[in-house]
């Protein structure tokens, strides 16, 4: 078996080469040095993956999130979240968590959510006396919910790479996402009392005020509901749901009289930039994946892991540990793209449902985004808020404990993920 591409991949990542270039260089080395493959085939493999209809959902949902920011939807959602939880102790931190859950149901990007809230909420939290490190940790940690609540982009990538129903994955993420939100709000409440934080609002909002805030955000809140219902009843595919979400967000922006024609070019620029990063990794990984298939690496890994144990629970524990280690050194989307084709056949052979495993894998690799040494959510948030990595990690310890505990719960209680898709698709 030719291990040169794997060696090149590990060395280039260790040297700090961008992940897409590292994967591309590793894949290209196989075609150049194998002697049996024309190098032109590598380019064909890279380009062929862009012809996939399901992958079109990625730029469409990215565009939805960008349009929301210009359409006034994000601000109205924040107003609704504040009306519901702003009177609690540590109310702004609770708003932070709840807003991540609401935004996850529309845009599905953890990095975008973390960047937005780091710019908008963390400065306000600092003005209210919140420790900046604590505020940064809440922002980064709560953004993890965004990838579990449908339509998470990570779920789309997993479904595409593992040939798993994206519609089922969307439904599977609803209950875990809500549970993760509730657990994090509970931890924030505990930490807020411990740190003696103040509420965001001086008094409890009346139900009339909450109803007003809900009306302001109601059009935006209909987007995730429409996506799930539309996919469930066959009105449109997950990809078409992305187009509908982007269109609906634009219509809402026009109705709110905040989305202008002059915003179109900026929206297209930001969408293109965010999409290009993900798709470049996918294209490079497709060329690298051809090498792994040719060398039968997935089969070898599956045989090696099944030789250790065929107990599904023990195997899931081992895989979780491997994913945590991988996620600490490889960006989450890249790790997801590389490892999904290898691990899905393994878990399928021991009877683990690929839909359940998709939730576990996406959550695992996204948690790695807030852990050292290469957590992208950690670096994104700290770069915007100006908090040192050391202070972030120290403040994040209780959140690490909660996130890994929730990961174990979702791993070993598959009914939490499978109840809704099994109910809906039966």
**Percent range for helical residues?**
over 70%
Please tell me the total number of domains. Answer: 1
- Measured between the Cα atoms of the first and last residue, the distance is 44 Å
Tell me, rounded to a whole number, the average pLDDT: 81
How many E-type strands? 0
**Main sheet properties:** none
Proportion of residues in β-strands = under 5%
Element-by-element helix/strand order: HHHHHHHHHHHHHHHHHHHHHH
Structural class: mainly alpha
- Given as residue ranges, the uncertain stretches (5+ residues, pLDDT < 50) are none
Question: Radius of gyration from the CA trace?
Answer: 21 Å
Record the SSE blueprint:
Layout: H1 4-14, H2 19-33, H3 40-48, H4 57-71, H5 73-85, H6 91-104, H7 110-127, H8 132-142, H9 145-148, H10 153-162, H11 166-172, H12 174-195, H13 207-232, H14 238-255, H15 263-294, H16 297-308, H17 312-329, H18 332-349, H19 354-367, H20 376-385, H21 389-412, H22 415-425
Helix pairs in contact: 1-2, 2-15, 3-15, 4-14, 4-15, 5-6, 5-13, 6-7, 6-8, 6-12, 7-8, 7-20, 8-20, 8-21, 10-18, 10-19, 11-22, 12-21, 13-14, 15-18, 16-18, 17-18, 17-19, 18-19, 19-21
Which short descriptors sum up this protein?
globular, 22 helices, 426 residues, mainly alpha
Describe the structure in your own words.
The chain is an all-alpha fold and 426 residues long. It has one domain (4-425). Helix content is 78%, strand content 0%. The chain is built from 22 helices and no strands. Helix 6 (91-104) runs antiparallel to helix 7 and helix 10 (153-162) crosses helix 18 (332-349). It is globular, with a radius of gyration of 21 Å. The mean pLDDT is 81.
